[in-house]
From TrEMBL:
Protein name: D-3-phosphoglycerate dehydrogenase
Family: Belongs to the D-isomer specific 2-hydroxyacid dehydrogenase family.
Gene3D superfamilies, sorted: 3.30.70.260, NAD(P)-binding Rossmann-like Domain
UniProt pathway annotation: Amino-acid biosynthesis; L-serine biosynthesis; L-serine from 3-phospho-D-glycerate: step 1/3
Organism: Niabella ginsengisoli
ACT domain mapped to chain residues: 316-384
Length: 384
């Protein structure tokens, strides 16, 4: 079977090359089977009936109408961990530049015009800053990125507190035993010399750092935000810098309020801006898309559950549906009525949505497929 893939941004060649024979890569395809993108906004786009999947070469999916896609049975993928090392390195850099006043010192040195060596020796004292060794780092969010940062910081001699009430088993296995668990955010706020944010942005996490939380923090704390600008209340952190509560704020998300402000180090969204990261994200997005189109297996979706099963039997049917009672029973009955036996199956759910894969011993009839499509709560049926 042939598939058409539409790209909304420039995607690294190493990723596009993963598609190979049977795939047409078209920038302006009207009826694509899959879409790959980075930062292009899809909120005002109309989705054709042909569209089966959207893969973002990156972690955040704020530029994609995820819920709208779920209702249409369109699986949305991201690439968690593909850019983790790039962000880890920038986080370590951020701790150093926020502590040692390196950026300010460079800017000052470049402003000198004469007797430079003499002026440097006279003026360098204004840029003295503490070392990070022995200091306490609070890591909020222990996903792929947070774990790498926590482990790297322990190797640099820092004491690390980690907080994540939803930490995965895989992340926990990868976390250094030297990282201490914080049972709540208050523990982080009261003890950390540095705080770095690595959580998703949503209605619950918006403004996680605000006037109330700054009031709980140690004087002079350094804040690092490489996740999303909206996690920190702009007005509140500027006030906290002004009164000395926050010693420095490093943000990868500059806006009009955050530029040319004393105490703010504004980085132009460079968290994942490395060739290695772009390659990793593109390759991962392409592999996930290809696997879904060819086998129906889902890995790293943000709106449907992970659901994978080796292919067997004569035919595979996949059903994206609402997570409501008796869905599997109704699907099975539609096949049983047509005297079609199920060789193997798997059903997984995630929030309001679920996904079922069925491998059949014989090829299904058009009538049985139409019966499954007609079940209330079924969003999309595919025959592979």
């Amino acid at each position: 079977m042939n598939y058409t893939i539409k790209t909304l941004n420039k995607i690294a060649k190493i990723g596009l090359d993963k598609f190979g024979e049977g795939y047409a890569l078209v920038d302006d395809a009207a009826n694509p089977d899959g879409i790959l993108l980075r930062s292009a906004s899809m909120h005002d786009m109309e989705f054709p009936e042909s569209l089966l999947s959207i893969a973002r070469a990156g972690a955040g999916v704020n530029n994609i109408p995820v819920d709208k896609c779920a209702e249409k049975g369109i699986v949305v993928f991201n690439t968690p961990g593909a850019n983790a090392n790039a962000v880890k390195e920038l986080a370590i850099t951020s701790m150093l530049i926020s502590s040692r006043k390196i950026v300010e010192g460079i800017n000052w040195a470049n402003s000198l015009t004469q007797d430079v060596a003499k002026e440097v020796e006279k003026g360098k004292a204004q840029f003295v800053g503490p070392e990070i060794e022995g200091k306490v780092l609070g890591v909020i969010g222990l996903g792929a990125i947070g774990v790498l940062i926590a482990n790297a910081a322990t190797n640099l001699g820092m004491e690390v507190l980690g907080y994540d009430p939803y930490i995965s088993v895989d992340a926990a296995w990868g976390l250094s035993r030297a990282v201490r668990k914080a049972n709540d955010l208050k523990t982080i706020f009261e003890n950390a010399d540095f705080i770095t944010l690595h959580m998703p942005y949503n209605a619950q996490t918006k403004g996680t750092l605000n006037a109330a939380t700054f009031a709980q923090m140690k004087k002079g704390v350094r804040i690092i935000n490489l996740s999303r600008g909206e996690l920190v209340n702009d007005d509140d952190i500027l006030a906290a810098i002004e009164d000395g509560t926050v010693g420095a704020y490093v943000t990868d998300f500059p806006n009009e309020k955050m530029i040319n402000r004393p105490g703010v180090i504004a980085i132009p969204h460079l968290g994942a801006s490395t060739p290695e990261s772009e390659d990793n994200c593109a390759e991962m997005a392409a592999k996930q898309t290809k696997a879904y189109l060819e086998t129906g297996n889902i890995r790293n979706s943000v709106n449907f559950p992970n659901c994978e099963m080796p292919m067997s039997g004569e035919q595979r049917i996949t059903v994206a549906h609402k997570n409501i009672p008796n869905m599997v029973g109704q699907i099975s009955t539609a096949l049983a009525d047509a005297k079609i036996n199920i060789k193997d199956m798997i059903n997984k759910s995630r929030g309001d949505y679920a996904y079922t894969i069925l491998d059949l011993e014989t090829v299904s009839s058009e009538e049985s497929i139409e019966k499954i499509k007609a079940i209330e709560g079924v969003l999309r049926v595919r025959v592979i």
